[in-house]
Amino acid sequence: MSDIIRLLPDSVANQIAAGEVIQRPASVLKELVENSIDAGAKEIHILITDAGRTCVQVIDDGKGMSETDARISFERHATSKIRDAADLFALTTMGFRGEALASIAAVAQVDLKTRREDDELGTIISVAGSKVERQETVSCPKGSNFSVKNLFFNVPVRRKFLKSNQTELSNILTEFERIVLVHPEIAFTLHSNDAELFNLPVSSLRQRIINVFGKKINQQLLNVNVDTSLIKISGYISKADSSRKKGAHQYFFVNGRYMRHPYFHKAVMEAYEKLIPAGEQISYFLYFDVEPGDIDVNIHPTKTEIKFENEVPIWQILAAAVKESLGKFNEVPSIDFDMEGMPDIPAYNGAAPIQPPKLNFNPNFNPFQKIPSSSYSRPDNDWEKLYSGLEQKSHYAEPDYELEVIEYPAFQEEEPEPEQATLYDEEPVSEKSSLQFQFKGRFILTSVKSGLMLIDQHRAHIRVLFDRYLQQIRTRQGVTQGVLFPEIVELPPSETVVLQEISEDLSAIGFDLSDLGGGSYAINGVPTGIEGLSPVQLIRNMVHTAMEKGCDVKDEVHNALALTLAKAAAIVYGQVLNSDEMTRLVDSLFACATPNFTPDGKTILSVLKEEDIERLFK
């Protein structure tokens, strides 16, 4: 038999590697910008066309490459940052595996212009599908200029599964934010289809956060700074009163690299325990400095999951640092004794005799003694003069009766007590009765043919409102209620592109938004029936819901938007309902196609069968 195992061609191996490293245009941006940072760039310019489908261009003023380095940089496992295996445990750079450029060149058309500072001329090299098409000498500025065109041009299946332009651009901006937040010493610009989205000069870390997420966040930041022999933690956390259900900006960085770490996230959130409502999140920007040998950054292709050698002690240090910052800036609630109106407490003097307090009371007062009405003396106060003359000017007729004091007779056992109102009538409730009762401000009890039905009023209203809002989105028949004073919602660019994508759906529900520029929108109208709710928070929640679902999946986005608004507008637990309101809610619930469950699968009603009730009394 012939041998069947063969080595893959380099082009195929590079495409397989690209499947791990290059997932979307945002992955290209990340790899190219990290290479620019490692090259010592002080200015990095990014130009995006069609959300990266057509072109992703990164220009830097780094040290550049020679003609030989430019050619070999597109080979797999070609890197300037590792010489032996020991270097893997002392990494201080961003990219190190030498797969990024080879992977990009395997699935795109790449043009590179580069020149070192000491060279008079630079090099231009073009690679498409892992094949070098040309390499020439050219005049160009110092640094590198990468232009990645037609991503996945030779892998149509991968290109087919790219999301909409708004979704891909949002992913690009999210990746961009993770990079610029850790390098405030580098100036960045980002243009999308010739429109400038970011222009970030060199600044301090706090100012870089403000430039990315807006001026409003400046009032929410609390400084965190702790330095131990194991780890140094710095950065900012937000105040407890700035918590939100969705859209919190949460960033961990270790040695200049963004990471996800649920274990450390729990340490931060436990410090806010009992300071924020359950289910809400806070923003934080925390930077860890540890010895490179104490972490492993090579456990995931995108290098966003990092393994720490000393996770437990770092968890304790992090939790203590956050609590210390909250306490230092008086974010932890404390008891404030207001002394205004309190009696003066004299200082203790042992030589002075102790004087017992004096009590003023009438020893002849008998609370059971009847006092005739004529014995009450009317105090001679001047307040009666204020009402003089009102008898003539009053437009209301005087009553033709005199008020009298009703004296109740003493309790007699033979007299029956007055009848008390009870939940149950003398006759049992008929099966067709529409009578409902509210229990504990949460459940509606009503009689059905098989027994007793319990309905969760909050979930029932969610079901009703969800169907209503979803129908409005699909038919574009939402009713808008204008507001007297429009509120302003400010969003970062990564959220602005999502809002633009779902703007028609928001308009269909009933929102009226006007673009003020710079990521600011005026809310001129809101859907009817959401009085008392914050339209700004609703907009933010729906934008982040759309980001989670992906803007191009229309049905899922419609369902998510309708559910978000329904949950916010539904009646809350503890709200007292009268009989008519309960009847309307129950009737509306059973008019829905699926009254048994909420849109997210929670039980709305349950029936206690008649035989089960009878069994309780045996």
TrEMBL record:
InterPro entries recorded: DNA_mismatch_repair_CS, DNA_mismatch_repair_MutL, DNA_mismatch_S5_2-like, HATPase_C_sf, MutL/Mlh/PMS, MutL/Mlh/Pms-like, MutL_C, MutL_C_dimsub
A Pfam family it matches: DNA_mis_repair
Keywords: DNA damage, DNA repair
Residue ranges annotated for the DNA mismatch repair protein S5 domain, each copy included: 209-327
All residue ranges annotated as the MutL C-terminal dimerisation domain in the record: 435-577
Purpose: This protein is involved in the repair of mismatches in DNA. It is required for dam-dependent methyl-directed DNA mismatch repair. May act as a 'molecular matchmaker', a protein that promotes the formation of a stable complex between two or more DNA-binding proteins in an ATP-dependent manner without itself being part of a final effector complex.
Family stated for the protein in its record: Belongs to the DNA mismatch repair MutL/HexB family.
Protein name, as recorded: DNA mismatch repair protein MutL
